[in-house]
Design goal:
This protein is α/β, with parallel strands linked by helices. The chain has one domain. It contains 8 helices and 4 strands; from the N terminus they run E-H-H-E-H-H-E-E-H-H-H-H. A 4-stranded mixed β-sheet has the order 1-2-4-3. Strand 3 and strand 4 form a beta hairpin. The longest helix is centred in the C-terminal third of the chain and has 24 residues. The termini are far apart.
């Protein structure tokens, strides 16, 4: 898996370490994908150039917090850096890496031809319908399992000197994928 260098070098190194916490079978299966980061400013510029694009509008709307997307035609995992302080704020760190894990799972789905024939529901059209899609249930479950397993390692990599009590998705996400909070 190729990690673009359009982020600062420290964030690059920490992100790379967090990716390596995932099973090698997953990483090997999507090694032909490139992870590309988009700043909020870049997203705003794209929206300015394409104001009818509902995806950009949704990404930039306060409170939506979409973490990324996968473009199977370009083999890109696109991560949206809409966080205030990834390296300094533990919640931003956890959300950033959780979203990265989620999108890596979508890349795996593409290469394994899983859920590729499904009709795609966008979150801005029907959030619950979006969350209940098999591809999203799989990606959120993957995110949940691996974040629960690695959260303290992730916090350590980012030099946050604390232990996380647990990891959960937002309540309506947990309900939609049929998982219990811990």
């Amino acid at each position: 898996m190729i990690l673009s260098k359009n982020i600062n070098s420290m964030l690059y190194k920490k992100t790379e370490k967090c990716i390596k916490l995932l099973p090698s079978s997953i990483l090997n299966a999507c090694s032909d994908f490139k992870i590309v980061f988009f700043t909020k400013k870049e997203l705003e510029e794209r929206f300015k150039n394409d104001p009818t694009n509902k995806d950009y509008e949704y990404i930039l709307t306060e409170g939506n917090e979409p973490g990324g997307s996968v473009d199977k035609s370009t083999k890109e995992i696109r991560i949206y850096l809409t966080y205030d302080n990834i390296e300094g704020n533990p919640m931003d760190t956890v959300n950033f890496i959780g979203n990265l894990y989620h999108e890596i799972r979508h890349a795996w789905q593409v290469n394994k031809n899983k859920y590729q024939e499904d009709t795609i529901i966008k979150p801005y059209d029907d959030l619950i319908g979006y969350l209940k899609q098999p591809c999203e249930v799989d990606a959120y479950t993957f995110q949940l399992i691996h974040m629960r397993k690695q959260i303290n390692n992730i916090l350590k990599i980012f030099n946050h000197n604390l232990q996380a009590p647990s990891y959960n998705l937002k309540e309506h996400f947990m309900e939609a994928i049929g998982r219990e909070e811990v």
